Amino acid sequence: MSDPQRPRASLRTAVVWEVLKDALERRAKAAGREPGAAEGAEHGAHGAHGALDVLDTGGGSGNFAVPVARLGHRVTVVDPSPNALFALERRAAEAGVADRVRGVQGDAHGLFDVVERGGHDVVLCHGVLEYMDDPAEGLRNAADALRPAGTLSVLAAGLGGAVLARALAGHFTEARQALTSPEGRWGDGDPVPRRFTADQLSELVAAAGLEIAAVHGVRVFADLVPGVLVDTEPGALDALLRLEEAAAELPAFHSVATQLHVLAERD
Ligand SMILES: C[S@@+](CC[C@H](N)C(=O)[O-])C[C@H]1O[C@@H](n2cnc3c(N)ncnc32)[C@H](O)[C@@H]1O
Known about the structure:
Layout: H1 10-30, E1 53-57, H2 65-70, E2 74-79, H3 82-94, E3 101-105, E4 120-126, H4 135-144, E5 146-157, H5 159-168, H6 172-180, H7 198-207, E6 211-218, H8 227-232, H9 236-248, H10 251-254, E7 259-265
Parallel strand pairs: 1-2, 1-4, 2-3, 4-5
Antiparallel strand pairs: 5-7, 6-7
Helix pairs in contact: 1-9, 5-6
């Protein structure tokens, strides 16, 4: 998994990371304090020093959890994979945030066997709905894990991006299969079990009882551009990052994005 702090890898995560960072900042301000604020700050539902309680369902090895902890927040990662949790522990220790990252073996379907209902300011559900037997139930659990006025961040594979990528690679039959199959898969060899359109993902989030605050298309161009262009042209990476940011908010580009990001809030 990439690290949002590293430049080349940031192409995969930059848009989500910027949206998420802003959302965390807004949530911390709404809670009345900044992360890492002075000792003696008022302790309340959000704990000491303004740190938020963040839950990362299917958080894996901490691609987002560790950078979020570096902002000063407390992160609980729930993931069924012991290997991912082991990697998370090592990564958190290397980043010096082991005291703020807790890995718990568990499943988003049985989320409340391992975490508290209604106990989190922000819940991340990144790259996991695709792998769940029942994404609607996964999102309902994610929503129920939020405190009132909490924020949900959902990232999932986009259908149109996969269709476009298969077509541009000359795999036209696979592209059509992805377009027409109910799960948006291009064939038996497709490693992704399920993809979503922006409407499908938004409807699932709304059905979980949340208000949608923003939808972004992620990796609209990054996966289609030959790597050599980005790596060898001076300034190309920065220019591509800025282009991704500009396109991310525009609904016209959501239908061809590799991933879709939905930010939503609980009343
Ligand atoms: C593609 S990785 C995404 C990891 C991380 N969220 C990120 O964005 O980098 C998918 C993760 O979902 C986890 N996963 C798969 N099925 C799950 C389920 N039913 N509940 C919770 N996590 C699950 C996997 O173990 C894996 O770590």
